[in-house]
Amino acid sequence: MQIAIALFERFTALDAVGPYETLSRMPGAETVFVAERPGPVRNDNGSLGLVADRAFADVPNPDILVVPGGPGQSDQMANETLLDWVRSADATSTWTTSVCTGSLLLAAAGLLKGRRATSHWLALAELERFGVESTGERVVFDGKYVTAAGVSSGLDMGLALIGRIAGDEQAQTVQLLTEYDPQPPYDAGSPQKAPAHLVEKFRAGSRFSQ
Amino acid sequence: MQIAIALFERFTALDAVGPYETLSRMPGAETVFVAERPGPVRNDNGSLGLVADRAFADVPNPDILVVPGGPGQSDQMANETLLDWVRSADATSTWTTSVCTGSLLLAAAGLLKGRRATSHWLALAELERFGVESTGERVVFDGKYVTAAGVSSGLDMGLALIGRIAGDEQAQTVQLLTEYDPQPPYDAGSPQKAPAHLVEKFRAGSRFSQ
């Protein structure tokens, strides 16, 4: 079972590593980071470089496709090399997934039209513009398309997907070994829960219209 | 404020990227991945390479030191190059932190004797062997030493530390932007919550005596 995680400049690290740390622990999984060209790809902050071991062209038929998001997503919306690979990988994938604004790339590739999906809370309205029914849910399954909300939500998506593919016990095993028993010291992880003035500040400064 | 995250072969990716994704978003933070030699460092699974941009010797005085864990920690317990750097970085750090079995490396460096600390649930007894009072808590502050439990707990540690350094609102900001509103689809993230037969299986197969 080959899992391909797409990288592009200024991706958000946890968008990619959350699904990676969960899905790569599935029995039989072979996980590969792919990008337009092999080599290190820098994240949004620039201080993290994750190595793409293969070029898109070298991984044409992954069983599971994972598309992360991040500020660099904007520059990829018209990158036909990436979008073509997403489309052709999707044509034979068992599951096509995204985290955060990665769902906008799936949408730009034409894969989510008329489907239910999610994205980072600041990108939900943008997702609607592609004819997608955007939801505020953390993980959305619609057929073989699985989309997750912002950044950290890829952990929840990874476990949910392992449950579907390999059963509850495998998912529980991964949760136990990664000690995913979250105890955030604050309760500000969604626009419904965070202080209103912070939500307003980031809506006002967002690169997406709200 | 310089944050140095140590890498070594067969580290666990999320151990490093959880604290990274939170701490690097602090205003004024300069985050750098360091290792014995600059270049890509492979994780426990081998399928992920994270670039160390600097050698230990090039980052002698970080304000915050982060030591991840993972299966590769065992090989580092007698690596004086790494342990010497941990000791000398700690001599001037404001905060010295670990995730998962990274606390065993802090202990091997002699930094945790007589202190309260935590680790991956499978490594708590091992931590006690270094004269550390190991606790089952997810994040433990003891003076400037901050240790976190297994793998995913670095997210909680990162937010807690941002709160101490930069205040509640900065921590809430990072939680909101990373949409850290965890909704794991199972409740098996600790040995108290997971099915008993899974806990027993991994205790029996652990590289640490239980």
UniProtKB/TrEMBL annotation, chains A, B:
This is DJ-1/PfpI family protein. Gene3D superfamilies: 3.40.50.880. SUPFAM superfamilies: Class I glutamine amidotransferase-like (SSF52317). Pfam families: DJ-1_PfpI (PF01965). PANTHER family: ARAC-FAMILY TRANSCRIPTIONAL REGULATOR, DJ-1_PFPI DOMAIN-CONTAINING PROTEIN. InterPro entries: Class_I_gatase-like, DJ-1/PfpI, INH-QAR. Residues 2-162 form the DJ-1/PfpI domain. CDD domains: GATase1_PfpI_2.
